[in-house]
Amino acid sequence: MSAKKVLIIDDSQTIRRSAENMLSSEGVEILTAEDGFQALSIIAEHLPNLIFIDIVMPKLDGYQACAIIKNNPDFKHIPVIMLTSKDGLFDRARGRVVGSDHYLTKPFTKDELLSSLQQHLPA
User: Which long-range contacts (CB under 8 A, 24 or more apart) does 57-64 make?
Assistant: First the structure.
């Protein structure tokens, strides 16, 4: 999986670091952002291969950011995985409506992250 870039978007530094530590052994380049606005500039500059995004964030939440990503012809091919503590049926449905490709609930495990990575990033 070398040369693959994964963007982790979460307003919690603890979550960003945890996910980064869990994925760093997989040979992927890890990019991080604190909110949706920061993420959009990172996406435009670095074009990640996969995005993990929190839903509840300041400025631009995960639903809004996902919708922007998926409505942009240059970025819509990038898999977006919601990574959130919101686990209701409505939350999952709203994630699908805005174009998310998968949904992981916090707290997540290393196995769940790696499984999502393998499922959505071709080798």
Answer: 57/9, 57/10, 57/11, 58/11, 59/35, 60/35, 60/36, 61/36, 62/9, 62/36, 62/95, 63/94, 63/95, 63/98, 64/36, 64/98
| pLDDT, tens only, 76-104 | 999 999 988 877 778 888 889 999 999 99
| Structural domain for 9, as ranges | 5-120
Instruction: Tell me the CATH number at 85.
Output: 3.40.50.2300
Domain count, the chain: 1
Against a cut of 0.85, is the pTM above it? yes
Kindly report the number of other CB atoms within 10 A of residue 53's CB atom.
25
The torsion angle over the Cα atoms of residues 18, 22, 27 and 29, rounded to 10 degrees, is -20
